[in-house]
């Protein structure tokens, strides 16, 4: 993953005709992590989508080097098949091999649930499955939207370990969260409440 990079230069974001934020800059290279904080509606998810290339910047520029995996509130796993099959489907699209799926399931303590249909997973198990999809993808840039939501203490620790390994391997992680996460992220971007700003 050497050579991974994510750079935002003076980025502004407008949604629904409203300026959510402006002047956001960020420069991450291999092994770099950032946390996004801010109140509900400040634009954390929007900033992650902008980093993923799913949302255009109103102004400024976004540059990525390396594959991107986004974990947001959408399950993005087939409810009707087993967890292992659902993760393998995405791994094939990401050109990841079976060993990467097995390792990702192991990282999120999902191996005992491999044959359980996705629809039967609990909230926290689903979140772990979504994180396993990101881990299995082999993408250099992880964009995690509230990755700790629904996770118990043990699973939060697994998340922290997975992020730590990814950074050590030269990956990049940007995580948005309201709660403290066991994640080493030297950079914090706090998005202000734009309604308070406007007042
Ligand atoms: N598709 C859309 N069209 C128009 N406005 C949108 C759209 N999606 C989100 N917004 C608005 O953009 C603002 C920022 O939303 P966003 O989800 O990025 O905030 P957030 O900081 O992640 O919030 P939360 O902490 O609640 O997850 C909100 O006011 C929201 O209503």
TrEMBL record:
It holds the Pfam family ABC_tran. SUPFAM superfamilies: P-loop containing nucleoside triphosphate hydrolases. Keywords: ATP-binding, Cytochrome c-type biogenesis, Membrane, Nucleotide-binding, Translocase, Transport. InterPro entries: AAA+_ATPase, ABC_transporter-like_ATP-bd, ABC_transptr_haem_export_CcmA, P-loop_NTPase. One of its GO terms (molecular function) is ATP binding. Gene3D superfamilies: P-loop containing nucleotide triphosphate hydrolases. GO terms for biological process: cytochrome complex assembly. Residues 6-191 form the ABC transporter domain. It comes from the Bacteria. PANTHER family: ABC TRANSPORTER I FAMILY MEMBER 1 (PTHR43499). NCBIfam families: ccmA. This is Cytochrome C biogenesis protein CcmA.
């Amino acid at each position: 993953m050497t050579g991974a990079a994510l750079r935002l230069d003076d980025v502004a974001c407008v949604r629904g005709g409203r300026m959510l934020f402006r002047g956001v800059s960020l420069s991450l290279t291999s092994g770099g992590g950032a946390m996004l904080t801010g109140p509900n509606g400040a634009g954390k998810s929007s900033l992650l989508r902008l980093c993923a290339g799913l949302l255009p910047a109103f102004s400024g520029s976004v540059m990525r080097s390396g594959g991107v995996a986004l974990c947001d509130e959408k399950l993005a796993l087939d409810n009707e098949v087993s967890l292992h099959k659902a993760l393998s489907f995405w791994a094939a699209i990401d050109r990841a091999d079976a060993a990467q799926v097995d390792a990702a399931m192991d990282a999120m303590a999902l191996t005992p649930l491999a044959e359980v249909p996705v629809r039967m997973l609990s909230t926290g198990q689903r979140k772990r499955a979504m994180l396993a999809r990101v881990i299995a993808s082999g993408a250099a840039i992880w964009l995690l939207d509230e990755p700790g939501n629904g996770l118990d203490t043990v699973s939060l620790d697994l998340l922290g370990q997975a992020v730590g390994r990814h950074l050590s391997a030269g990956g990049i992680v940007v995580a948005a969260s309201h709660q403290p996460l066991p994640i080493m992220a030297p950079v914090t971007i706090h998005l202000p409440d734009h309604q308070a700003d406007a007042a």
